TrEMBL record:
Keywords attached to this entry: DNA-binding, Transcription, Transcription regulation
Pfam family, one: LysR_substrate
Family, per entry: Belongs to the LysR transcriptional regulatory family.
Superkingdom classification of source: Bacteria
Protein name: Transcriptional regulator
Amino acid sequence: MDRLNAMLVFTRIVELGGFAKAADSLKMPRASVTVLIKQLGSHLGVQLLHRTTRQVSPTLDGAAYYQRCVRLLCDLEESEGLFRGAQPKGTLRVEMPSGVGRLVVFPALSEFTDRYPQIELEIGLSDRPVDLIREGIDCVIRGGLTLDDSLVARPLVQMEQITCASPGYLAKHGVPRSLDDLDGHRMVEYFSSASGKRYGLEFLVGDQVRLINLPKQVSVNSAQGYIAACVAGYGLVQSPRYHLAQQLRDGHLQEVLSDCSAPRLALTVLYPPHRQLSPRLRVFVDWLVELCHRPSSGFSGEVNASPRC
């Protein structure tokens, strides 16, 4: 039995939750995966996995062995890269919001892939909650507060947020010049499909954040839908400037309340602690940090703080 290969197969089964998924991911025959795991369990003298018709999960012994395997495999990959002087290689699985991917990452991605041609990227574009371990995802990019303390969080940038509405909406309801002018206005409400939390408008008043919930006719749970509802004239929205830049240039949206800033929104990359030694993940995260601080990124991450009410 090739123990290193068996360890790799075992960790992939735990991460993906199934023998078939692990086999497909590693491009191995499914029968070979089954044989390796049987041999590994016999060699160790313990049951590593609970297997049902619906899913596969590690036993207590399997969970402990999984953590050891991950560290060993990461150390091996790191050591080989250092001594061979080789470029990082392999598949990197990343999840990020659609807007960040479409508007920031993909326009510059050829720079990264040219620099690291042996890294194959699998990029998911969504705001859905993900289980990085279970789904075998190396890192996820998210905006807002980090809620999972079990993950390593590396800040990318503090995004400037602005308040906007469509010209048609403003022609009908008037252009607000101050927060006192918001009486009689409406907003598009954003709600999280994962937590159910609903978001109103936020403004910095002195050193405090003031939450304003206006009447709404439309609520949405996607960033693209949120902007589309604003363009359609359903009310005010707040979003990072980079996400609204095209609509502002095209005249489909107009910035309002520029003298009353919204709190900046943190953009963070998250990954499991055992992934931090992966050379391909390290170079990708370093590149993301570099990218997000360029003026061309649209994040305005290095400008002075916006004015407060």
